[in-house]
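Changelog entry: the DUF3099 domain-containing protein record was regenerated in this release. Current contents:
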Amino acid sequence: MYARRRRGYFWLMGGCIVLFISAWAFVRLWSVPAAIGMCVVAMVIPPVAAIVANRRGPDDHWWDEDDPSGNRPAGPSGRQDGRRPQ
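Regenerated structure tokens:
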């Protein structure tokens, strides 16, 4: 799953770069509002790419899940039971 997320991230960021460069390289010669619109779209793509790259896949193991061995990993507090120290 990691490779698919990474590939999606690079496709989105590549599209962002293409939009931005083409907007100011040659689209602005015909239409400045279209170039600005392309830049606005390019501005929205990086947060979407970050969400795509960081979303959880169906077989991803996260810190809050049980191990297959039955042991619960330590939570953010560092304790095995997940409770915060008093």
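The mean pLDDT is 79.
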